[in-house]
Amino acid sequence: MTNVAVALDAKQTWIAEFASSEPDLAGPAWLRPIRKQAIARFEAAGFPTQKHEDWRFTNLAPLLRVPFKPAILGRPDGVLAERLEPFSFGVLKTSRLVFVNGQFSPRLSYLRPLPEGVRVASLAEILRNDPGSVEKDLARHAKYEDDAFVALNTSFFTDGGYIEIPKGTVVEEPIHLVFVSTSHEMPTVSHPRNVVRLGARSQATLIETYAGWAPDVTFTNAVTEISAGPGSVLDHYKIQRESESAYHIATMTVDQDRDSNVMCHSMAFGAALSRSYVHTNFHAEGGSVALNGLFMPSGVQQADNYTRIDHAAPACTSVELYRGILGGKSRGVFNGNIYVRKDAQKTVARQTNKNLLLSKEAFVDSTPGLEILADDVKCNHASTIGQLDENAIFYLRSRGIDEEAARHILTYAFASDVVNQVKVAPIRIKLDQLILSRLPKGAGPGEGL
Amino acid sequence: MLEIKNLQVKVGGKEILKGIDLSIGRGEVHAIMGPNGSGKTTLAQVLAGRLAYEVTGGSVRFEGKDLLAMRPEDRAREGVFMAFQYPVEIPGVSNAYFLKAALNAIRKYRGLEEIDAMDFMGLVQDKAKLLGLDETFMKRGLNEGFSGGEKKKNEVFQMAVLEPKFCILDETDSGLDIDALRLVANGINTMRSPTRSMLVVTHYQRLLDYVIPEHVHVLVDGRIVKSGDADLARNLEKHGYGWILEEAPRPQPARA
Ligand SMILES: Nc1ncnc2c1ncn2[C@@H]1O[C@H](COP(=O)(O)OP(=O)(O)O)[C@@H](O)[C@H]1O
Ligand SMILES: [Mg+2]
Questions:
Q1: Domain B2-247 belongs to what architecture?
Q2: pLDDT confidence tier of residue B251, bands split at 50, 70 and 90
Q3: Chain A residues with CB inside 8 Å of B82's CB?
Q4: Full-prediction pTM beyond 0.80?
Q5: Nearest-by-CA chain B residue for A408
């Protein structure tokens, strides 16, 4: 079958699936028309092909060929708590919500004491008991109109994390959402949907971990919608460590109110094909955002990173730093789009993407982008693709360090700019370990560079 | 300690060293002087194991072993150290981490235990003081944003910590103001010992006022054209390289 036929076939399957499952999808009355509009948009637009500008480097045919089935609702998930241990962060104390193939698992989840009024719950439960509290946010920020995967998520989602921080409240301990994707006989799909609302001057740290194990074939199609109230502070981490046979597509939207301060870390290690789309929007002045990304595919993995920062209001600052480390025959994409609207005077925007190719067969495409309609702004972007510096390797070797260790040290050092942005020490240590464990061949150089 | 015989080296297809003979005994300090482009750095880098330099003939024995057959890291572990003319900047790797990794790699090779953190700090502090390097320097990225002088000091500092048997100093004096030159020269002199040999490569005689060599060799167009004692360096300073070029045998056309 040609790729076009595959895409058409997959589209029909999803539409039929919606027709049969829609009556059973839970949710309040106002959600049903939204789901129907979303599937209608999907039907009209279909899956993107490589002719589409944003999908030039990404062949979806392998994903669309797999007959994914949703995990059966209500069936016990069978995931052992011990298996989740490697996805925690050492001494770091967090509240944790675990979702297995898209369904909340109370057995694997726990809440630590939280300040009054803070809500950390499964979205399904909120939709059952208090749907009014998500109506303002759910499906309001992540646009299904022009994104097939957001449309599918909107049509099919059943659960995910719901986090609400009341105004003026500081949540000290991070909140950890863990999405486990497993498959047994059949490849499984899940559509996690997260809604996060930070009240004025509130503060929180949120971690999204996407977990899975080889050789499971799974498809996770996640959407996270965040609204950051005036003066709020959010430190957000997305750590993708799915099975290397998995497909992972995730969209995150952040809507930033006046003077809010948001940091989005995106770390991609797993999946056969992963695509992360982060879209932040300043709709009031004085906000700041930092997008901090690391993607580290090896073997035949592909890791795509699309970002869009919308400066729709004056005097906001964005700093974007993405690094790619690509080994084997892996592929990667960085595509950064900064959009400065006409009225967004005094915008400061800096974007850097640097890529390190560890092998001759690895490939990366880096497309930085700035579109500026205002005139009083400070914006710049830079992008590089290179190999390890032979002079640096020789310098280290000339001091007695063997070649492999020299390469490891330099590769690790390349990632350090991004890792050093991580404020939570146990998360930083975990990332160090993950990076070191993924360096080609053998053990890494150890910690504390 | 070091025996170089008829060493010939090509870089990018071009013959740079055209038959070097040099014998350095234990505890001796030799200087190599020569105009820019004469091949001094090429000689230093070849001894340290730089692959881009292709050895087309000759041999180098270090304490009886075939130096040219060794990997660069093994040369370092055997006790060869080259202070780079242009030290490399490596952001993201701290001086402390780098030096500890190097020291431990060398210790391991020699069958010694890894140095513990306390001993390492003690060792490093003493040597850093000797060169007038401040405390924060160990935490900074390796040569990252260092001034020319700081980089040169760092080379000598590394040498002091790693305690090699044979030190090659490639233009370690260039770019230093007089205070830095004195510190660096003092650092080098502190390391002189009956068991340690040095090859000091320089374009000027400046450093040799402080680090007085036993032997001076003049390298011109890939050949040692004259050898003598410390007076030779002083003559070169006074009269330039011109008189040597006239005295020296005409260079033969490069062999293919
Ligand atoms: N990587 C290289 N590729 C080509 N030519 C080189 C390279 N390195 C040095 N050379 C040439 O080799 C000659 C000797 O250089 P070098 O050893 O650096 O001299 P010195 O240190 O005495 O100034 C010069 O003509 C220089 O241009
Ligand atoms: Mg030189």
A1: 3-Layer(aba) Sandwich (3.40)
A2: low
A3: 398
A4: yes
A5: B93
